[in-house]
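STRUCTURE REQUEST FORM
Protein name: inositol-1,3,4-trisphosphate 5/6-kinase
Source organism: Durio zibethinus
Requested output: structure tokens
Priority: standard
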Amino acid sequence: MLQCVADMNLSDSYGNVGVPRQLVIKRDASCIPDAVAKAGLTLPLVAKPLVADGSAKSHELSLAYDQYSLRILEPPLVLQEFVNHGGVLFKVYIVGEAIKVVRRFSLPDVTKRELSKNAGVFRFPRVSCAAASADDADLDPSVAELPPRPLLERLAKELRRRLGLRLFNLDIIREHGTRDHFYVIDINYFPGYGKMPGYEHIFTDFLLSLVQSRYKKRSC
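Status: completed
Returned output:
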């Protein structure tokens, strides 16, 4: 699904949206360093489970700092270049035409010094879960500022068309040090809307709009 975002090459006066470079590893961890080198990915790398089955392990992220530690990862997984983003991500819920954005704490930035000194794999369970809300936190305004609404509306509209989905959410980050350079790092279809503020009214309105649309078609 992230490939759809990459293919859009979305860029306008409100900003540009891309995806970090990534690589799918289905088996044989011993081949990961060579595969990463061949793909030209830059460390550190975020490792995400390829299968999301709702278990605690499926929500666990790992951050690999060096080539040697890549061999201890557990396929199947997705490796994604880590982009510094101020430790905050934007969870964008799409319910039909409605868009709701919340801030969540994310992985901390990695400095060049940390990258040169640290080695191994660091694991982060339940990153960006509802308990990690950053909406009321005292954040740097440059980090806390939400992505422009027109940019999100254009992105959501195009993804609805390309993916054929009406219920999904996006995890979006802003590259640290920029104001308008965004990355979509994850897409989830039919996510847990109970975590979305005001979901009752938004979801009810969505269901009513579907019924009304179907009724109008029958009347015609």
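Reviewer notes: The first helix runs from residue 2 to 8. The chain has six helices and eleven strands.
Form closed.
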